[in-house]
Amino acid sequence: MLLLESQTQLVIENIQSTEGKEKDKKELINYYQNNIDKIYYKRYRQIGCDIIGLGAIESAHRTVIQKRIKLSEQHWNKNGSQNMLQLRIISMNKPWHKVIDRLKDHTKMAA
């Protein structure tokens, strides 16, 4: 429950004070310390993220980013890769109606 409230430092302190193999405790503490800047679970839940955790992020990285950007013979600059990733996210989330509406609005403003 402490992690869901973004109390990572308190989790680390609790691990330090519990009994157990020192090697296992040290590995777990190192993991939390190395990822403390990524564990904002309370904030993620507040903004409506249903799936939280590093595993979900790592999986999304593989399926959303690497699957498209790391194809053979692919070379990307920062701007091109950002545009491609935005299209990939839209494609995977299926909100094409929002893209089309935005393009229509943009076209109206340009006219």
Largest sheet: none
Nearest-integer average pLDDT: 80
Following the backbone from N to C, one meets helices and strands in this order, namely HHHHHH
Coarse structural class: mainly alpha
Q: What is the strand tally?
A: 0
Percentage beta strand: under 5%
User: Which radius of gyration do the C-alpha atoms yield?
Assistant: 20 Å
The backbone outline, from C-alpha atoms, is elongated
Textual characterization of the structure:
With 111 residues, the protein is mainly α. It has a domain at 1-52. The protein has 6 helices and no strands. It has helices at 8-17, 22-35, 41-46, 54-69, 78-93, 96-110. Helix 1 runs antiparallel to helix 2 and helix 4 (54-69) packs across helix 5 (78-93).
What keyword list fits this structure?
111 residues
Layout of secondary structure:
Elements: H1 8-17, H2 22-35, H3 41-46, H4 54-69, H5 78-93, H6 96-110
Nutshell version of this structure?
With 111 residues, this protein is mainly α. The chain has helices at 8-17, 22-35, 41-46, 54-69, 78-93, 96-110.
